[in-house]
Each structure stands twice: as C-alpha cells, then as structure tokens.
Amino acid sequence: MKMILVSILAALFVSTSPAARTLDVYVIDVEGGKALLVISPAGESLLIDVGWPKSNGREASTERLIADFKTLGVKRIDYLVISHFDTDHIGDVPALAARFPVRRIVDHGPLTTTGKGVEARYKPYSDLFSNIEHIAVRPGDTIPLKGIEVQVVASAGNVIDKPMKGGGAPNPWCASSRQEDAIVQDAEDNMSVGLLFTLGKFRMLDLADLEAHQDWYLGCPNNLIGAVDVYQANVHGQFKGMEPVLVNALHPRVAMMGNGARKGGDPETWRVLRATPGLEAVWQSHFSVAGGEDHNPPADFIANPDPDPSKDQNRMIKLSAQPDGGFTITNMRNNFSTMYPSNPASHP
Fold first, then answer.
1. Is the preceding peptide bond at 221 cis, omega within 30 degrees of 0?
2. 183-242 tens-digit pLDDT
3. Residue 115 scores a pLDDT above 50
4. Residue 8 lies in a domain
5. CATH of the domain at 187
6. Where are the alpha helices (DSSP H) in the chain?
7. pTM to 2 decimals?
8. How far is CA 38 from CA 49, 56, 144, 145, in A?
9. Is 236 left (phi over 0), alpha (psi -120 to 50) or beta?
10. 205-216 pLDDT, tens per residue?
C-alpha cells in the first residue's frame, strides 16, 4: 500500500510540475533599426539596441518598445546591450531609461569614431553611467544572463582569436574570394558587439552591424564559431554585412532579419542566404521593396508584409528555443508558426 501511495504521489508531481521554460527571442519592429529582446529560461531579460530616436517624420522607437514590453509582461531590462553608437541602434536610451527600469548597460567601450552626429548622441547616453551600471566588453567576455550562456565574439573592432566550443575546424569556403564589396563603409558598424547565445544544444549568433570584411576573420582560415541554429542577419540584411564564407560555415537552419521595408533585405543578401547549405527558412520583419516578389520569403514568414508605412502593423517575430536544440518561430501578426525539431545532423 505504501509503495502504491508513493507511486501515485510521484505521478501527481510529474503531471503538475511546470514545463521547462524556453529561451524566447523577439525581433521587435523598429522600421529598419535594431531591437532584439531576449528572455532567458530564468526570466532575465537582455535587449540589444533600442532603434531610432525621434526625428522629422519618425516617431521614437522608445514608444514602441515600451508598448511591446507591456504586451509581453516584461518588467525590467536586466542587460541593455548597445551594440554600437549609430543612430538606428543607440536611439534615445535616456528616454527609455527614464520610463522603464534598466539595470545594466553593456557596450564596446568609449566612443572612438566621429561623424554623422555621433558625439551629440553619445554624451547624454554616457551620462547615464553615473546612475546605471556600465560594462564595456571585449571578445571572449561573457554576459552573465541567468539561464543561458552569452559569449562576446566581437567588440570594439576586434573579434575572438580562439574558437568557441564546437568551432575551430578549417573552413573550406575560405578558398573562394572575399566579398568584392567588403570595404569599410561605416567605422562604427565594425565596432559592433557580436554575441553567441547558447542554451544546451541550441545556438544563435547575432553580429549586429559587423560588416563583411570583419566577418571574414571569424570564418577564416578556421571557423571560430562553429555551426549555429539561428543566424540574425548582419546590418539589417544589407549586403555589406554578408560574407558568404562565414555564413556557409555557420550552417544555420534559419536566418532572421530585422529589416525595414526600404532598408536592408537586399536582393544580394537573399541570394547569399538561399545558397547557404542546410538553410530551411528566412524570417523577416518587413517585406523588402528592393527585393520584390523574387527575393522575399512567403508572407507568413514576414511580420509586416505591407510596404506602405501608414499600414505598418508593428508586429514582432518570436523565437522559442529548447535545450535539446529544437525551436519554434512564430509570426505574431497572424500566429503562423513553424517548428524546427532538434536535428543533430544539421550540425555536421
């Protein structure tokens, strides 16, 4: 009788225990800027960039972020990562911090570039460090977000010089030529903080606005990253961020793109991604006007398919990952979802 009671109690415990929490990632629509929200299984939050400041004809991304945080039940940002100081990434951090709790700010360190008004943007941003903890990271550092591993693979114009776990193999694609257009077009882009997220067998890479010639050093002569499940396309999907020798070596199952209707999502980028071995899908924030029907995914894979800004639905794309490597991506405009089961063969 005692053994039966123990068995019943054990079964009851299993049936009522909460399911393991997922790693949730949201590509927030900031119309061609960048804002990527990461919620760890432990419930901590990390936000990469805050989109645009208010300007002529454009609302501040701050309003959209706060509305989305409310919708998602986010109470604070534990780590705000400002990948670099271009206007579509640094936005208006003081305005956000004045209205929403931010515990720590992470970036690549002091401003070293000039031009395009970056000095004026940086001053009010850096003034926040007197009240909010500030962390400058370098390649090889980690961000201690509870529940997952977050490794810095690029920062302040440098990339890691040692392979990540699972990386280090010779890259056969390095025998091909480097991207012809891989010239430094934006010095601040190449200061970007690039991050590798790991939950068990699941891996996601986000290199922010790192340009193609910097990508090369992560991929050649050896692939320092290894294979990933999800690749957040560099520079909003602009071709200047696409180095095929790295993208091919990453062997992603899915590419995600925080583009705008008329920014990013270049046709050349589409061709690079679709030629990547093993790629199963591309998910985008917006339909790319430049791409046309031939260089965009089906509408269900696009959060905001109408190119008319007045009809922008401000919808997000959600990724939910499990420790076994499986993940699901959902278009929050229409709740269309695709499940990508754990597949060890996808990582040769």
1. yes
2. 557 889 999 999 999 999 999 999 999 999 899 999 999 999 999 999 999 999 999 999
3. yes
4. no
5. 3.60.15.10
6. 2-16, 61-72, 87-90, 93-99, 118-127, 212-219, 244-250, 267-274
7. 0.92
8. 11, 30, 13, 10
9. left
10. 999 999 998 999
Report the distance separating Cα 174 and Cα 220, nearest Å: 6
In a domain, 201, yes or no: yes
152 phi/psi in degrees, rounded to 5: -85, 120
Longest Cα pair distance anywhere in the chain, in angstroms? 79
Number of domains in the chain: 1
Question: Could you write out the DSSP letters of every residue in 67-136?
Answer: HHHHHHT---BSEEE----SHHHHTTHHHHHHHS-B-EEEESSS-----TTHHHHHHHHHHGGGTSEEEE
Location of structure tokens 């890479």? 205
Domain assignment present for residue 228? The answer is: yes
Determine the 3-state secondary structure of 282 from DSSP: strand
Q: For residue 32, tell me if it sits in a domain.
A: yes
DSSP label at residue 326: -
Distance CA 293, CA 127 (A): 46
* Cβ atoms within 10 Å, residue 31: 23
Contacts 24+ apart (CB under 8 A), 162-168: 162/224, 163/222, 163/223, 163/224, 163/225, 163/226, 164/196, 164/224, 164/225, 164/226, 165/226, 166/203, 166/226, 166/227, 166/347, 167/222, 167/223, 167/224, 167/225, 167/226, 168/222, 168/223, 168/224, 168/226
Which domain, by its residues, includes 269? Answer: 20-346
Distance CA 267, CA 274 (A): 11
Distance CA 206, CA 83 (A): 10
Cα gap 160→224, rounded to integer Å = 8
